[in-house]
Amino acid sequence: MSAARTSYRFLAATVFAVLAMQSPAGILTRQTRRPAENPLSQPARANLIRDYGNLPLAFEPNVGQTDAQVRFLARGGGMTAFFTDTETVMVLSRSRQAKKPVGPGRAEAPAEVEQTVVRMKLAGAGQPRRAIGLEKLPGISNYFIGNDPAKWRTDVPHYGRIQYEGVYPGIDLVWYGNQRRLEYDFVVAPGADPKQIQVAYEGVESLGVEANGELVLRTGLGEVRQQKPRVYQETGGKRVEVGARYAIVAGNRVSFELARYDRRRELRIDPVVLVYSTYLGGSGEDRGNGIAVDGAGSAYVTGGTVSTNFPTRSPYQATHHGGDFDAFVTKLTPAGNALVYSTYLGGSAGENGCGIAVDATGSAYVTGGTTSTDFPTQSPYQATLQGVGDAFVTKLTPGGDALSYSTYLGGNGTDVGYRIAVDGAGSAYVTGVTTSTNFPTQSAYQAAYQGGWDGGWDAFVTKLRPAGNALVYSTYLGGSGDDYSGGIAVDATGSAYVTGYTQSTNFPTQSPYQAAHQGGWDAFVTKLTPAGNALVYSTYLGGSDFDWGSGIAVDAAGSAYVTGATTSTDFPTQSPYQATYHGGDCDAFVTKLMPAGNALFYSTYLGGSGQENGKEIAVDAAGSAYVTGSTNSTNFPTQSPYQAKNQGHNDVFVTKLTPAGNALSYSTYLGGSSNDYASGMAVDAAGSAYVTGYTQSTDFPTQSPYQATYQRGSWDAFVTKIQLDVGPQITLAGIGNAANYVAGKVAPGEIIVVYGSNFGPSTPAQLQYVNGVATTTLGNTRIYFDNIAAPMIYAVAGSPSVLSCVVPYSVAGRTATQVQVEYNGVKGNTLTVPVVDSVPGIFSLNQSGTGPGAILNWPDYTVNGASNRVAAGGSIMAYGTGEGKTDIAIDGQKVPLMGPYPKPLLGPWTATVGGKPAPVSYYGSGPDNIAGLFQVNVQIPPDLAPGIYDLVIKAGNFTSTAGLTVAVK
Fold first, then answer.
1. Integer Cα distance of 874 and 716 in angstroms
2. Is residue 858's pLDDT more than 80?
């Protein structure tokens, strides 16, 4: 007999049954959110997001904390939704500052909360069979209301989605949250009729379907937009899109008109609801110039305003100080529909806020220009105005109602700060332009003004100490012509990266990609050393005509990303999305430089037949560049757009490029029927883009806004958040050993179970081999360990979603590994999981590693148990995983019937039955099984009386879980 032989058929029936079970408590590891890169084939589109937050929307069952008719409730910024058996009630709210002060000497009145209620009912539907919560989330809610403990409600669970079964015959309704956006799907069973679905709305002033297919619900607080319905079926593990549109029937009812589809398959109808965008302004002119975002998703905006009624809240400066423009600084809540604070910032002459940054504490750093002699200062480096106009640098406290420091920065001419960045220590880096011959310098790379024609411009770069009252360095940057700086970024080492444009043929260069001026204006890209007194690199960037650099960002590897505009038909390109100039007055460009600055990673035009100007750029952790600017082209390139067509003369554009730069993740117009311009952009950790600028459009797209309407000045500022919608968010929640569910660590070659949501096919997919090796894809699901796809064993959607795989042997020797799940080409969040040499577990039938094991009696391969015992002196085979390295380590290999059989390096292996030594006759992989599953053959002591005995298996420091048993006859 071959002691190593096992029954693979039994193993599939037993082990796979174990892997399909629900996640036990405690299988959670530290989660790090990362944006997912979405291939162009995905049915995705760019969306305006109502909620800035990154936390999942949670659904609570009603256990007495609200009206008894409510089954579930959910809360998001500015919205509470109540789900009953017959309707969904959405209460939308926003906070506005009262117009009049309260009491003598009070600077501001308390906020007023405005609300509107939208009811959504399913016309003609019966009561659903049941409403259930799915995908239980970490966290609970407690309600301690009143002084009667009997009325308190504690440990109220949170769910990731809720499902109403049978709202119509064969049709379910599923609600879920995506980036805190409330969404719903209709799931139509094979053969069911989707024409039954009619959604009736109450509480809306009117309904309409726009040319782009969006459904617009107009309410007293503005518009609620549902994007064009996304309808699909799954065929062969892939989504097949079905043409669909909204149809308005009977005034306030909406149905779905569908193209032909396969009625033998399940159909999913997925509208997207509740998106966000807001005006920001008063009755005069207001322009948003710069934007930043913090880790919680709050947006910080600066710009200029002449409005005496610009919205303020908890301000440092409550009133406009005269002159022309005052700067403003505004922080919005993560929901975007209310202000945390909003303040004027200025003196009696004029100011403009140009750039803003935010640190980890929530302190905002602002730069711009002022001509006021009484601009507010606090602990300044420079206390007084030095020339015609000076730059200013101001740091506000996290509350926005006080200054940490505020200083002039300038000389005897005109000085303007355009952009600002901040490092981890709180040092501010400022760039801008100056005509001053005595601009303050310190440890300068270029100590003297180089001038230009007729008192021309030089760029400057200044680093202030965290206290703001001294300079670390400050330097001119320019040649004998005019030089303008428009953007700055800083890396983790404290090196500043600057872009702008120059007429100088002797602009300073160092290790350049392009050493000589090419003609007209050229863009430039310069990296300074952390000390600021030398250049790491500095290069021209342009063609034979005019080129302007406007915005710059830097990634963790030190690659600089630059955007601007060009009229050059020979602007340098490299692996471009768009290789040629598309005509008109100018095209935008997007360029990524290698870290050394002397070569291009990619460089591309971006434009249509009209005029484009790339204004600002940001980059996410995956290396995707986000670009905004303005366009008047009717054929600007779009991809999965929120808005597919130009709505007026000038529209904003927002474009996300893939990391390679040769394709678009999304690209969209953004605007109304008049002129719209973008000025600032930021991106958060989830890959959502934040844009600010200014608009003359009375129909600029808004949704659940802080300010729903244009204020009738010459311009209003706007703030918009956009992200790529990829359907339900893939969430990887936990990992455990497939045998005993030990969580929090993995070993090379270990078979694990992975839990989460929205990954896995609609029907289970099980182990498949190709040429004797397990596939790395099952049901269009993959799992990656440090970007290496793992051999897959099992995948199913379920609740929660579950998959099983073999940890690649490549993780050996590492202290941790980054784990991601991919489904239908879309990746979810990343888990950071510690790696250990071994973490063995023995399979048992109750998933706990105790009680009856997944153990076979020899020689008939039947399952050992109380009704099927092994004879004393006979043999049993136990199965486990997580033994770590083996002498043959091939990922996903099917072990040949005739060997060789991989053996664990962990050992020696011993066993006891009922406390008596039991010889181990074999340990290692068994024939016809996947590598990573090991078996241990144990001989039962011949003198044991009939009974059920504890089985203990040991190897090195490993001891099997107490309570594992074997039945002896």
1. 85
2. yes
**What residues contact residue 25 under an 8 Å CB cut-off, 6+ apart?**
none
Return left, alpha or beta for 813; rule: phi > 0 is left, psi -120 to 50 is alpha, else beta.
Answer: left
| Residue 3 confidence (pLDDT) above 70 | no
Q: Nearest-5° angle of CA 647, CA 649, CA 653?
A: 65
Q: What whole-number distance in Å separates Cα of residue 320 and Cα of residue 247?
A: 48
**The two structure tokens encoding residue 480:** 């004998």
Tokens found for residue 116? 């509107």
Rg of the chain over all Cα atoms, to the nearest angstrom: 32
H-helix or E-strand spanning residue 965: strand 964-968
Distances in Å between the alpha carbon of 672 and those of 51, 143, 303? 22, 45, 21
- CB-based contact 882:904 (threshold 8 Å): no
Secondary structure of residue 500 in the 3-state scheme: strand
What tokens does 148 get? 């009667």
Q: Are strands 689-695 and 286-293 parallel, antiparallel or unpaired?
A: unpaired
The amino acid sitting at 252 is N
Give the separation between CA 541 and CA 564, rounded to whole angstroms: 11
Cβ atoms 694, 678 nearer than 8 A: no
Q: Of 182-191, 303-312, 484-493, which range is least confident?
A: 182-191
Residue 166: pLDDT over 80: yes
Amino acid at 345: L
Tell me the per-residue pLDDT of 395-435, one tens digit each, with 9 for 90 and over.
999 999 999 999 999 999 999 999 999 999 999 999 999 99
* Residue 12 phi, psi (nearest 5): -60, -40
For the residues of 196-250, what is the DSSP string, one character each?
Answer: G--EEEES-SEEEE-TTS-EEEEETTEEEEEPSPEEEEEETTEEEEE-EEEEEET
The full 3-state SS of 260-290, as one line of letters, equals: CCCCCCCEEEECECCCCEEEECCCCCEEEEE
Are the C-beta atoms of 364 and 292 separated by less than 8 Å?
A: yes
What would the two tokens of residue 555 be?
Answer: 């990634």
Six-digit token string for 574: 């490299």
* Beta pairing, strands 535-541 & 522-528: antiparallel
Query: CB–CB of 378/345 below 8 Å?
Result: no
* Dihedral sign for Cα atoms in the order 822, 827, 828, 831: positive
**Cα angle 165-171-175, degrees, rounded to a multiple of 5:** 60
160's enclosing H/E stretch is strand 153-168
Write down the residue that tokens 């640190």 correspond to. 359
Q: Tell me the torsion sign for CA atoms 343, 346, 352, 353.
A: negative
| DSSP three-state, residue 19 | helix
Strands 390-396 and 403-409: antiparallel
End-to-end CA distance of the chain: 22
- Residue range 256-274: mean pLDDT, rounded: 78
3-state helix, strand, coil in the chain (%, to 5): 0, 50, 50
Total count of residues recorded for the chain: 969
CA distance 655 to 664: 7
- Token duo for residue 91: 């209460």
User: Taking Cα atoms as reference points, which of 648, 555, 543, 647 lies closest to residue 603?
Assistant: 543
Closest CA to 590 of 685, 658, 674: 658
Helices (H), 48-145: none
DSSP state of 732: E
Residues 360 and 708: their CA atoms lie apart, in Å, by 30
Q: What is the pLDDT of residue 51?
A: 33
Residue 96 has φ and ψ, to the nearest 5°, of -125, 145
Dist. CA 405–CA 365, nearest whole Å = 9
Residue 504 near residue 522, CB atoms below 8 Å? no
Residue with tokens 């107009």: 218
Residues 6+ positions from 321 with CB-CB distance below 8 Å: 344, 346, 347, 348, 372, 374
| Burial 789-820, CB ≥16 within 10 A → b, else e | bbbbbbbbbbbbbbbbbbbbbebeeeebbebb
Cis peptide before 900 (omega within 30 of 0): yes
**Tokens (6 digits) for 775:** 């596939």
